[in-house]
Amino acid sequence: MPVTDQKYFTGDSAVKLAAALEQGIHKGALAPGENLPTIRQLAASNSISPATVSSAFRLLRSRGLIVADGRRGTRVAGPTAGFTEVPLIIPPGVRNLADGNPDPSLLANLRSALRSVSTAPRLYSDELNFAPLTALAREKFGVDHIHTGSVAIVGGALDGIERVLREYLRPGDRVAVEDPCFSGILDLLHASSLAPQAVGTDANGIVPESLQRVLRTGTTALIVTPRAQNPTGAAFTLRRSADLRRVLASHPEVLVIEDDHAGSIAGSTYHTLSDSSRGRWAVLRSVSKALGPDLRLAFLAGDVTTLARVEGRQSTGIRWVSHILQQTVFSLLTSPGREASLARAAKSYADKRAALLNALREHGIAATGKTGLNVWIPVSDESGIVAALLDRDWAIRKGEPYRLNSAPAVRVTISQLHPREAVRFAADFAEVVRSRARTPGA
């Protein structure tokens, strides 16, 4: 241990040692991924028992700060306070291409839907879910070849993912995720003291060979986005999903969770990895991107045990998702012209993605954005590019919060970017890249 770091490895009790290590992590002296000294080394250097050090490590694991990595030892996961991005403040006059929101003009109007909601009081003994809505969800899942005998209703995709993970995993378990990955999933895993394991991706989603390597390390679960992957826009092809199914067939014990957060406005066909013969699986389909972010509701399909566990836990906690919300979503999804409206939204996003990708290509800039609301652009200096574009009145997002081992990049939300603006943005982006390349040390 370097002398300058000694103070972060001292303590004559489990609480004091854990506090010192936590301080080092939060101050950045112990970097994410850094291996900690062994239990025996810490015990000897502090003249305490190995059991005391083990207790300190347990405290840190429960807070999501360190991860046990088998024979490779114990390493730093990172400071909990640093997982969630600082809210981006957009100055007046700056075009916001950073927030990941859908286009408000393409979202549902709630007025007529709310008028159709029953105002009759609901009581604690009433049904958990609004039966017409779950029937509709089963029908929609069936169209995408997702087998389900029943459907649970949860408070959004992340809420559903958390509930499923909680039923099967314990602190320290490994979870395979896309790299880059939606930052909200990484936040959730760290907060749950789970260890994200990076799986490489390309335009068609996670790469089978990379998934195979990760699963061989004792991974407990896989969280994957089959289409509209955030931040890259990747989406499974039929062939890719088949290849991934073959990999997963050799690991039947792995819990597979699919996050279909964009649903019908994603811009591609849904190719599921779920299989009725698989022991543990779940598919989350949110309505937030298609109907409105404030409609915090998602449908959960899954195997019988998973659904029973999730609904059983709901009955002892939140009990149910508000039936006012459930009825509103049902009314919106079944309103005349809704399917056509969703199709128009999907086409609008597809046209905007294509406009930006084409404009960037004209300047020799490679980017990905096959589906969804975002385009992912590899760069050498995320912070510098973001700052320089802000000076030109464009706000975009650094790729760092989404990355584990993948290369630097920036994320651009296209939902409100008019195709004519895309030409100007691409020109500014190209000029910033060229300017920084000409500037030594930039």
Please, could you describe this protein's structure?
With 442 residues, this protein is α/β, with parallel strands linked by helices. Helix content is 40%, strand content 14%. An eight-stranded mixed sheet has the order 4-11-10-9-8-5-6-7, with helices on both faces. Strands 12-15-14 form a three-stranded antiparallel sheet, with helices on one face. It has a two-stranded antiparallel sheet with strand order 1-2. Helix 6 crosses helix 11.
Write the layout of secondary structure elements.
Blueprint: H1 14-27, H2 39-46, H3 50-62, E1 66-68, E2 74-76, E3 95-96, H4 110-115, H5 131-143, E4 152-154, H6 157-168, E5 174-179, H7 183-191, E6 195-202, E7 205-206, H8 208-215, E8 221-224, H9 238-249, E9 255-260, E10 281-286, H10 288-291, E11 298-302, H11 304-316, H12 323-334, H13 338-362, E12 374-378, H14 382-391, E13 394-395, E14 397-398, E15 409-413, H15 419-438
Parallel strand pairs: 3-13, 5-6, 5-8, 8-9, 9-10
Antiparallel strand pairs: 1-2, 4-11, 6-7, 10-11, 12-15, 14-15
Features:
alpha/beta, globular, 3-stranded antiparallel β-sheet, 442 residues, 15 helices
Q: In summary, what is this structure?
A:
By secondary structure, the chain is α/β, with parallel strands linked by helices. The chain has helices at 14-27, 39-46, 50-62, 110-115, 131-143, 157-168, 183-191, 208-215, 238-249, 288-291, 304-316, 323-334, 338-362, 382-391, 419-438, and strands at 66-68, 74-76, 95-96, 152-154, 174-179, 195-202, 205-206, 221-224, 255-260, 281-286, 298-302, 374-378, 394-395, 397-398, 409-413.
